Amino acid sequence: LRTLDLGRDAVVVTHPCLLEMHGRSLCAGLRKNGFSVKVMTMPEGERSKSSQQVFRLINELVAYDIKKKPFIVAFGGGVVGDLAGFVAAVYKRGIPYIQVPTTFLAQIDSAIGGKVAVDLPAGKNLVGAFYQPRLVFSDVGLLSTLGRRQIKNGLAEAIKYGIICDPLLFNYIEQNAKSLLAADPKVLREVVFHCSRIKARIVMNDEKETRGMRTILNFGHTIGHAIEAANRFRYYHGEAVALGMRVATEMSCKLKLISAQDAARIQKALSTLQLPERFDKIVVRKILQAMRHDKKFQGKKNRFVLVTGIGSVKVVEDVPPRTIQAALRAFQPKR
Ligand SMILES: NC(=O)c1ccc[n+]([C@@H]2O[C@H](COP(=O)([O-])OP(=O)(O)OC[C@H]3O[C@@H](n4cnc5c(N)ncnc54)[C@H](O)[C@@H]3O)[C@@H](O)[C@H]2O)c1
Ligand SMILES: [Zn+2]
Predict the structure, then answer these.
(1) How much is the mean pLDDT over the chain?
(2) pTM above 0.70, yes or no
(3) Which of 130, 191, 318, 332 has the most CB atoms around its CB within 10 Å?
(4) Is beta strand 123-130 parallel, antiparallel or unpaired with respect to 115-120?
(5) Do strands 9-14 and 70-76 pair parallel, antiparallel, or not at all (unpaired)?
(6) Do 198 and 192 form a contact (C-beta atoms < 8 A)?
(7) Does the CB atom of residue 46 touch ligand 1 within 6 A?
């Protein structure tokens, strides 16, 4: 951190429970290296990604920021990362920040790429910016306190990277599913390393999502977001995305873009990772309705990232509604 010329005053933004679990060593390490440390906490949960929290943190920052040169340390999962990153982006038109992600999902996805945002009552991530952290520091040791469901939540995004562009990563996850589910730090580190590299590479080539390359990261997300919109409280993001990937794979199979064999391998890998296999009492109609409000399902011209083999995807427009419906029905709850 000293070599990055960030300033001397670290402002750690986190949740009280994380401070309790892992915060002391972080703060001690910072102090030992000559930084002053101020901690600002906020409640857990998506509700903290709000304009109220933004201005509360900023007001706390202003009061503290006298003869200081603060930089922000976002210490938490995606919620902390998105909120603290957004505060860093707008406070005094931008101060430096670093990401120290503490969830598996944040380490492989949300901390990398510079998308920072908060929610409005009208929808998620409606106020945001592209603002890159000066450093992303992922320590898989932090994941030792995560519950199994949170590990699976990250595994859905991890296997997504394999499916969209890295067959070797897909094999690795497939073969090490058991150790991954048991949160073995050795295999987690491998996966975090490879996924981070993939995300960083995609973002470097298409930082602001203007060249179409970042789009492939949305594999499984069109349906996934619709599932979240239809039943936000039941599913974690990764679980909804896993179902979204199942539907997208089924659509790809129906459109003969992928062999039945490869499609079956993807479905099986998702099951091996203990990700959901069927919609939970959500009616297809509700999902189709919700999909109309998704920005990736633009106007009449719908757009999906579909899979053409393990490690390759393509963007397909105008998928016939019948194909979408049939693919969705394949994962309806059994009567
Ligand atoms: N910016 C992006 O590119 C991007 C990408 C994907 C998701 N996101 C956002 O990320 C958010 C979801 O992130 P998340 O899944 O990390 O959820 P989260 O930040 O809410 O964390 C989940 C829970 O885990 C707890 N936790 C965090 N680290 C822990 C640890 N080491 N041990 C024990 N408990 C721990 C948290 O306190 C929280 O209660 C959403 O708001 C989503 O919009 C952003
Ligand atoms: Zn995602």
Answers:
(1) 94
(2) yes
(3) 191
(4) antiparallel
(5) parallel
(6) no
(7) yes
Is the shortest distance between the CB of 228 and ligand 1 below 6 Å?
Answer: no
Strand extents, DSSP E, the chain: 9-14, 36-41, 70-76, 97-101, 115-120, 123-130, 135-136, 303-309, 312-317
Neighbours of 46 (CB within 10 A): 13
Atom of ligand 1 nearest to the CA of 22: 31
Q: How far is the CA of 157 from the centre of ligand 2 (A)?
A: 6
Percentages (nearest 5) of helix, strand, coil residues in the chain: 55, 15, 30
Phi-psi region of 117 (alpha: psi -120 to 50; beta: other; left: phi over 0): beta
User: Measured from the CA of 15, which atom of ligand 1 is nearest?
Assistant: 37
Closest ligand relative to 106 C-alpha: 1
Residue range 295-315, pLDDT digits in tens: 555 556 789 999 999 999 999
Could you give the strand order of the β-sheet that contains 70-76, starting from the edge strand earlier in sequence?
36-41, 9-14, 70-76, 97-101, 135-136
- Tokens found for residue 192: 């975090």
Tell me what pLDDT residue 228 has: 85
pLDDT tens string 165-183:
999 999 999 999 999 999 9
Nearest residue (CA) to ligand 1, atom 2: 110
For 42, the 3-state DSSP assignment is coil
**What pLDDT, on a 0 to 100 scale, did the predictor assign at position 226?**
86
Confidence of residue 56 (pLDDT cuts 50, 70, 90): very high
Write the CB contacts of 10 (distance below 8 Å, at least 6 apart in sequence): 1, 30, 35, 36, 37, 38, 70, 71, 72, 73
CA dist., res. 89 & res. 102, Å (int): 21
Residue 32: partners with Cβ closer than 8 Å, 6 or more residues away: none
* Token digits of residue 22: 């892992």
Owner of token pair 């129906």:
254
